[in-house]
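User: quick one, fold this
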Amino acid sequence: MRYTSDLTPCEWALISYCFPKAATFGRPRQYSYLEIFNGIVYVNKTGCQGRKVPKDLPPWASVYHYYRTWKRSGLLPQIQDHLRELVRLESGKKPKPTAAILDSQTIKSSESSGERGYAAGKKINGRKRPLLVDTMGLILLVLVLPANVQDREGARQLLQRCSGIYKALRLIWADGGYAGQLITWVKGHLGCRLEIVKRPDHLRGFKVLPRRWVVERTFGWFGRYRRLNRDYERLATSGEVMVYLAMTRLMLRRLTK
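Assistant:
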């Protein structure tokens, strides 16, 4: 193993069968899927530019080609979903969650980012990541939007994607920023309850609040992956895939610890 981001044989065994089988015709593939995936994870972990991938990994053009192919086919989010179910089963939980926590994170973006906006409240010019996690902090769904999109509108767009995917979902916790008409909308469109976890009025300083700390911890995990500290992606879909990749790497470590 050359880099700490590289997958071990045990980690690769958990996801190797998810990748397409090699074609029986045409030019043989020069680099294995493991080497390609290590190159993608290296970029995600270190935050380096794609063209700056070290020379002992596959060439950046090959790494980027497969990253783009797997992003367009939806393979990378599917691997993340597969691992989440394994982690939940190992922890004695059902593979499909019945409760989730909703929140969003606002981050700065580079000038190369496509759609971005200015969040006046946080004085950040960049993007927003509405996030839905289960009670273990594992990602169910993420969306990347301009930072000037209101939290409730971002949550509505995120949960619209969620409709029909997590049919067992019965309860979602969120902070006071999601109160109001969104509660009725969630009940009508998803058939589950949105419960607001409010911060007590008399509370001063930092305090860990029930349920809300779970998603905050997930945001803390993102800090271990430098590509997520700022949004460098031109496309919002690329930003979403980078989040799924970080969670994939984290769950592989957890499953083989």
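User: anything notable?
Assistant: The two ends are 16 Å apart (CA to CA).
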